[in-house]
Write a structure and sequence with these properties.
Helices cover 37% and strands 24% of the residues. It has nine helices and 17 strands. 43% of the residues are buried. It binds adenosine-5'-diphosphate and magnesium ion (MG).
Length: 312
């Protein structure tokens, strides 16, 4: 069996800060990202690709909100599905083009993925992930009453809706993903953390208003398909301790134990490097390898020549 890797693309692989979210701009970024993923295919890995969707799902929510008097808005699970479709399409097409240019015959398939979470997850009692547009205090009160949304003040910039961010419990469709990997296919799955679903009282799946962290979903995917490596590609070359301070120090290869100690000492910010390191540590602890590196150096990092590597 070829080595199996799950690659989680960070937000910068699709849209960089301060860029306008036109299709052209996003497609240009995705083409560059696809070229880098194709280099990993050349290294002869079985690849599952996952990705973030923050700005894209934010814009879908905004479209819903702006047009709510004309077209009924859709709930968050559907918005995630829309973003997986849109981003998956861009990635699938760009990656296929990159592969063909390199003379590689692999197929690329996007799988709209449901991520099951527990209805009892403590995140449901404590929604804390801000999403969508900003509202005035007055509008925020109205939303709380009309839609039962939980609204929170966001750093003096206005009010935003906050939603639960539960832990992924099971990624659906994994058996099919493995079959596709065995047939020379790169699978794009679990985008934006996947469509959040729970089991109802009858044990049936249903969508739910939540968002799931893409690095947590990537880790779960990597476990379920028995990948040997889980990579998170982002906009920094390495993980650092004392990040942003004068004495910051780049981490190269570190043990799970060392990584956990730095985590406990608070070196990794909540909402950015924190969830990545949490996922990396939990994955590597199973005797595997987790890598956090820049998008540009992904192939080098896989060869052990760049990035931060956590080994179990
Ligand atoms: P992504 O879209 O790739 O998930 P995030 O913004 O969530 O991107 O995470 C990457 C960011 O984490 C970096 O741009 C960096 O500013 C931030 N970061 C926080 N703590 C650290 C750290 N200790 N070392 C490196 N980067 C860190
Ligand atoms: Mg992130």
């Amino acid at each position: 069996m070829a080595n199996r890797v799950v690659i989680a693309l960070g937000g910068n692989a699709i849209l960089k800060p301060n860029q306008e979210a036109t299709l052209e701009v996003q497609l240009d970024n995705v083409k560059v990202s696809a070229e880098l993923v194709a280099k990993i295919e050349e290294l002869n890995y079985e690849i599952v690709l996952t990705h973030g969707n923050g700005p894209q799902v934010g814009n879908i929510l905004r479209q819903n909100e702006e047009a709510k008097d004309v077209v009924p808005p859709f709930p968050l699970d559907v918005c995630n599905a829309e973003s997986q479709g849109f981003i998956g399409y861009m990635l699938e097409q760009s990656l296929k083009n990159s592969l063909e240019t390199k003379g590689l015959t692999s197929n690329v398939i996007t799988l709209l993925t449901q991520t099951e979470v527990s209805a009892e997850d403590e995140a449901f009692a404590n929604p804390n992930k801000p999403i969508g547009i900003f509202y005035s205090e007055e509008e925020a009160k109205q939303m709380e009453q009309e839609k039962n949304w939980v609204m929170m003040e966001d750093a003096g910039r206005g009010y935003r809706r906050v939603v639960p961010s539960p832990q992924p419990k099971a990624i659906h469709g994994v058996d099919s993903i493995v079959k596709l990997l065995n047939q020379n296919t790169i699978v794009i799955a679990g985008g934006g953390g996947g469509i959040p679903v729970v089991r109802n009282e009858d044990g049936l799946l249903k969508g739910i208003e939540a968002v799931i962290d893409k690095d947590r979903t990537g880790k779960k995917l990597a476990e379920q398909i028995d990948a040997s490596v889980f990579m998170m590609l982002t906009d920094v070359s390495n993980v650092y301790i004392n990040y942003g301070k004068e004495n910051q120090e780049k981490l190269e290869t570190i043990s799970v134990k060392q990584a956990q100690q730095y985590m406990d000492e608070g070196h990794f910010a909540d909402g950015s490097m924190g969830p990545k390191m949490e996922a990396a540590i939990a994955f590597a602890a199973q005797g595997k390898t987790a890598i956090i590196c820049s998008l540009e150096e992904a192939d080098q990092a896989l060869l052990g020549r760049a990035g931060t590597r956590i080994t179990g």
